Structure formats: C-alpha cells, structure tokens
Amino acid sequence: MKHLGQINQHLSDRKRLVVGAIADPSTLSIKPTDCDIVELRLDSLGTGKDVHQFAKTCPLPVLITARGPEEGGQSSWSAEERAHAYRAFLPYAAIIDIELCDFKAFGSVIDDAKGIGIPVIGSLHDFEVTPEPASLAEKINTRADLHKFAFMAQSSDDIKKHLEIFERLSGHALSVMGMGPLGAAARPLMAEAGSLLNYGFLGTTPTAPNQWPAGLLKATLAI
C-alpha cells in the first residue's frame, strides 16, 4: 500500500503519468527509473518470491494486474486464482487493474482494495477493432476510479474515435490508447488529449501490440 496518497492525489489532480509494464521475470532485476508507476503483470510473472520481493521493495508506486485470457492475459488461471493473486499483492499495491467485465465476479477484491484506499482501474481491451465511442458510456462502472480503454487502431478514423472518447466521457478519469502501429504512433496524442495513465514496457517484453518502451514514452511526453 505504498504511495497510496501520491496516486490518489495524481488521480484527483488529473496528472498525466507513464506506466512501465513488466511481463518478463528477467526484468525484475532492474531498478525502475523510466516511468512513474510500475505495472506488475501477474498473469505473465506469476506470484513467486521474486515477484513479491520486487513489489515490496519497488521505489515507485506499483500497479497490480492479473489480466484474464479473454482480454490478453497470459495465464490459464481461474477467476478464483486471479482473485487470490490480487489479494496476495494488495499489501504492495498503490493501484490495481481489473477488467470491467469482471467487476461483478471480483466484487470482493474491489471491496478489499477500496477498504484500504487502493484505487481501482476498470479496463476494457479490444485487439481487433475500435468500438464506437457512443457505446462506451454503458461500460462506465461507478466503482472504477479510472477507466482504461485500449483498442486496435487500423485507420485515421479509429484515431478520431479514440479522441472522441474524451469528449463522450468528459468528467471521468480516463486512460485511452491505441494498439497496433497506428495506435502506437498516436499514444502521445492521447496523452495530450487527457489520457492519465500512458503505458510503455520495461525490459524487453511489450504487454500490448507495438507498445512503446516506457523510457522513450516518458521522454517524448516531457518535450
């Protein structure tokens, strides 16, 4: 639960941050400096002692994610196993990410997190298309402190749809990003438009198609 006050203040202030995602166990040996938040993808890393030790000693706020396979997760964990992983890492978490479609199934995990002040990201991923922005209003869940939308961008019209999300859902804390070559190129544009959490990867293993290295993304957004 380190850095809780810091993360909650950032969300309140709508401050733009860079998330450095870790999916490769070899990356746990580094000292993260190229981002503002470190995401531990437990569905790729597992929950071994080395992951616990990294989370315990990480000098930056830690985002805990145990992604389900339907939205890009890399494990075959059951919902119960994912819930157990979340609970095991709550003592280290400054923020957690749960898919919006799983908010009901993971209601008790969300209760546990919120009970100790940990904000919750409600995420939605589509690795094939960018949905119509108007359809996303029905996805909003009042229990989410921030909504993350990551969609495959195939055309300039898709990029326009990504930007329209900020207009359609103004007033909500949002993290919006495109995947694929075109989506990746537009990530700084999304940050400028109001995306609060902007994802890159630490080490050598991206966690989404054409994801930026976190250090490069952070340097670009600082220009």
3D structure, described in words:
With 223 residues, the protein is α/β, with parallel strands linked by helices. Helix content is 35%, strand content 20%. The protein has nine helices and eight strands. It has helices at 4-13, 42-45, 49-57, 79-89, 107-115, 156-168, 180-185, 187-193, 214-221, and strands spanning 17-22, 37-41, 62-65, 95-99, 120-126, 146-152, 174-179, 197-201. It has an eight-stranded parallel beta sheet. Helix 4 (79-89) links the parallel strand 3 (62-65) and strand 4 (95-99).
Summarize this entry quickly:
Helices cover 35% and strands 20% of the residues.
Strands of the widest sheet, in order across it, are: 7-6-5-4-3-2-1-8
Largest sheet: 8 strands, parallel
- Helix- and strand-based class? alpha/beta
CATH fold naming: TIM Barrel
CATH class: Alpha Beta
DSSP strand content = 15-25%
Total domains, how many?
1
Percent helix: 25-40%
Q: Which regions have little confidence, pLDDT < 50, spanning 5+ residues?
A: none
CATH architecture assignment name: Alpha-Beta Barrel
Helix count equals 9
Identify the overall geometry: globular
- SSE topology string: HEEHHEHEHEEHEHHEH
Query: How many β-strands, per DSSP?
Result: 8
CATH homolog superfamily:
Aldolase class I
Which whole number gives the mean pLDDT?
Answer: 96
Please compute the radius of gyration using only Cα atoms.
16 Å
